[in-house]
Design goal:
Length: 645
């Protein structure tokens, strides 16, 4: 008998002895990090609300109770009873019964009302019908990404359970080594921005943290073939942890499956969905630009199938000697500071991923409170000594001024923006300004992936700033449903109509004017001297956005491309519109934010690795932290290995 079988047998005996005599255990199984307990008495289990919590703390495991299939009531009968228990206002849109696991997935507009106070309604459901309920939110704005991911996972349910069972056995295998060390190897994003990737290793375990591309340098991928990484074979990696969905952290995750990795990916649920959206778009863009994509959409599906979503604050076993906990990073939807607890109190490492220290309209500021942490791996995008950003309040005032000035002239405001994060932040600023009368009410057109990304945001309000979350819970106050917002979904004809119409605001991808519908908007509105182009995000060297920002006003029509009505022919497009830059809406902490993150961190780490910034930024930040807080700091290069223990 394998050791995992033995362990499960022992657990079954222990659980049985902890339970009252009239509650039976038919089997116990690992599914990923969870211990699943099947019982013929699910109703009795549910009657004793505290039982699961007590078991979990006694066994120090995450425990899920499921009914033994033999005792399940028929779905038709169960459906009626369940609907009788859930208050009507919950707005249930779908019930999906899975007899193999005894789970019923309830999709509702107000999941909170299905859950009830401290889970009371959920327990009532099990008490009545025996099935184990699982609740998901019906997106207030329909999202094709969310519905595609959900139906794909439903379709792949059987295979997914096999994957989870296999992962579960891996996690709970017996530790082989009695050696002790903790090492981090840098595979990318050191003294550069982009291709984030690290290996965290112990004698027992190897974990890959992030696997991104380098924007503007397609060939430069992380050093995945280093002996520390996949060099020893893809099966030697225990787990992949993804801090957030931006492509410079996620783009090459699907590539791992092409190389033969078939283990778990840990990230938050919104990160999983956004990764799906962004990597599929990444393949699309590569195809349009005539580049051979590094992998196919099949591998994106594999990545989604292998994802084990975790919520902020869940302490989760991901290897025999490693526990992972995600915390809000304040950067984009679902972004996570990833905390690793290694061994039993042996060592603790936190990877910041990308962070925003202060609250923004969308998110609470990054969490920097941990039970313990000895080493911090810290992003340094704005770590340079002069990298201070404009205060967000001042930026908002300036944006409103520009909108008012343009409106008075009868012009249109065109804002190139990234689909994820900045767009929603700007939408919130505009919505509030209109509501309070700071700017006149006018249509706000959303083009490119912005609408879809916004829909994903509204699916996961738990991940947004608390006051925004509360507003989304009340439909009539959901700012993203404001009537001014219009989804451009009818293509060129609709754009032409907007261009021919009155004052309005257009938010469109791509954020650096490197392609996408923004090119078409420039074609339509660029020649109008009464309109204004407003940059709200960083424009990288070499992008059309940067050139326009620094004064270019004759754009070759080949750049505007076939999408614009002026495109296609030879010659140039005269950009007569005003060009303004409003910074201060960044999703990254500036230099002050990064220092504050470390300064107020509890507990303060002994060592800091400054990564994910250009050479000057990482070195500036590293030396400042060393001098100001007297900690050991490093600005590593790629392919360095640090031993911490
Ligand atoms: Zn990012």
């Amino acid at each position: 008998m394998s050791t995992v079988e033995q362990q499960l047998d022992d657990l079954k005996a222990e659980i049985t002895s902890e339970l009252p005599n009239d509650i039976s255990v038919s089997s116990v199984k690992y599914e990923g990090p969870e211990l699943v307990v099947y019982t013929r008495d699910p109703k009795k289990f549910a009657q004793q609300g505290d039982l699961v919590r007590k078991l979990a703390s006694k066994l120090r495991k995450r425990i899920t109770i499921r009914p033994d299939p033999s005792v399940l009531s028929r779905p038709n009968e169960a459906r009626e009873e369940i609907m009788g228990v859930i208050p009507e206002e919950a707005g249930v849109t779908d019930l999906d019964f899975h007899a193999d696991t005894g789970e019923v997935v309830i999709e509702a507009e107000k999941p909170g009302m299905v859950i009830g106070r401290h889970g009371s309604t959920l327990r009532d459901i099990t008490k009545n019908v025996g099935w184990t309920p699982e609740v998901v939110r019906t997106p207030p704005i329909e999202s094709s990404t969310v519905s595609n991911v959900r139906s794909f996972l439903k379709q792949e349910r059987d295979e997914r359970r096999d994957i989870l069972e296999k992962v579960g056995r891996q996690i709970h295998r017996e530790e082989m080594s009695d050696d002790e060390y903790v090492r981090i190897t840098t595979l990318g994003c050191c003294r550069e921005v982009g291709r984030a990737s690290f290996i965290l290793s112990t004698p027992e375990t190897r974990i890959l943290v992030d696997c991104g591309d380098k924007p503007g340098a397609e060939g430069e991928v992380p050093y995945l073939h280093a002996p520390e990484a996949l060099g020893a074979g893809p099966q030697t990696i225990d787990a992949v942890v993804l801090t957030h969905a931006h492509l410079d952290h996620s783009a090459l995750i699907p590539l791992l499956f092409k190389y033969g990795y078939d283990g778990p990916i840990y990230c938050t649920e919104p990160t999983r969905d956004l990764m799906g959206l962004l990597t599929l778009d990444y393949l699309d863009v590569a195809a349009k630009e005539g580049r051979a994509p590094p992998y196919e959409s099949e591998q994106v599906r594999e990545a989604i199938k292998h994802t084990i979503p975790l919520e902020y604050g869940d302490v989760t076993d991901i290897a025999p000697d490693v526990k992972l906990t995600f915390h809000n990073a304040g950067h984009i939807l679902g972004s996570a500071v990833s905390h690793f607890h290694i061994g039993d109190g042996l060592y603790n490492v936190a990877f910041s991923g990308d962070i925003h220290y202060d609250d923004t309209r969308l998110f609470n500021g990054a969490v920097n409170d941990f039970p313990r942490v000895e080493t911090l791996v810290l992003e340094s995008t704005y770590g340079g000594r002069n990298d201070y950003q404009t205060d967000q309040q001042d930026s908002e005032e300036k944006l409103k001024e520009v909108i008012n000035k343009t409106h008075e002239k009868g012009g249109k405001v065109v804002i190139p923006a990234f689909a994820v994060g900045r767009s929603q932040e700007i939408m919130l600023v505009i919505e509030e300004a209109m509501r309070s009368g700071d700017i006149p009410s006018m249509p706000v057109h959303l083009d490119g992936m912005i609408w879809e990304a916004t829909a994903i945001h509204t699916t996961y309000p738990e991940y947004l700033r608390d006051d925004l979350r509360d507003r989304i819970f009340h439909d009539d106050e959901n700012p993203f449903l404001a009537e001014e917002f219009n989804h451009i979904d009818a293509g060129e004809e609709e754009r032409q109509d907007v261009a021919d119409g009155g004052p309005c605001i257009v938010l469109s991808t791509s954020g650096m004017v490197t392609g996408g519908p923004i090119m078409s908007w420039l074609g339509h509105i660029g020649p109008d001297p009464d309109s204004t182009l407003v940059f709200v995000g960083y424009q990288a060297q070499g992008t059309l956005g940067r050139r326009i920002q620094s004064g270019w006003d004759e754009i070759p029509t080949s750049e505007v491309g076939a999408m614009g009505n002026n495109g296609g022919g030879r010659g140039t497009l005269s950009l007569n519109m005003d060009v303004e830059t409003v910074d201060g809406f960044s999703g990254h902490a500036d230099r002050a934010g990064l220092e504050n993150f470390v300064k107020t961190m509890n507990p303060r780490p002994e060592k800091v690795l400054c990564v994910h910034g250009d050479e000057r930024s990482t070195q500036d930040l590293s030396s400042a932290l060393y001098h100001d807080y007297n900690m050991r700091t490093f600005a590593p290069k790629n392919l360095e290995t640090f031993r911490f223990l």
